[in-house]
Amino acid sequence: MLECVINISEGGDPDKLAALVAALGDDLLDLHSDADHNRSVFTLAGTDPARVLAREALNMFNISTHAGVHPRVGIVDVVPFVALEPSTFEDALRARDEFAHFAADELGVPCFLYGPERTLPYIRKHAFVDLLPDFGPKTPHPTAGAMCVGARPILIAYNIWLKDSTLEKAKQISALLRSDSVRTLGLQVGSSAQVSMNLIDYAVTGPLQVYDIVAQHAQIDRAELVGLVPARALAGIPRSRWNELDLSAEKTIESTMAARNRKLSN
User: 113: which of 123, 186, 238, 263 is 20 to 30 A away, CA to CA?
Assistant: First the structure.
């Protein structure tokens, strides 16, 4: 089984997001939206729903009118395929390449690949500057922009909101946390400062570690899990800390996938 965690550059139109949810049905495992980021993260089961979501989103939204604090290159901004057991990373790479062909050939959207070739941050820095798309047109689509299509291991997307703090402080903490296992951004989200993270090697640095490091440097308003978390990431975290860290067994990939499979078998 493959998981696809698509990031759409829209987070503030509940009616249109509801229409996307309806189009995906039971293949939608989780949805996290944020109006200030103007971004929604759809966690999908399998590969076909990714094509459904891409088509629908491109018909609804226009990147030229988009505003939000999160970096982006397009409406269907990031399309990572993730192998869940018993699938392999090679399966994820194959799905990535097939989706990029589809998006370029059928939707006319340029696609940048990430994974073994390059990282997502590299694409964000170099796209259309000194890096051309791997598939599709060499210039951005007028309403869709471009897509970053990847294959990656499981990661944890995680935000920590600071209390009575500043963007400068969030950026300082982000720089302190940044490492081979943690990617970070310090962002101004509405009236609050936020440390936004991808924990790309959560066995090395997980939610508990980053939370406690941030707490040493600033008061924390709240933590926020974006999407789902692998069950094994909870194993080393005391249950007494789960609520504080915005974690629970119900927010695991395994629990959500099992619930979907039960629905489909009834």
Answer: 186
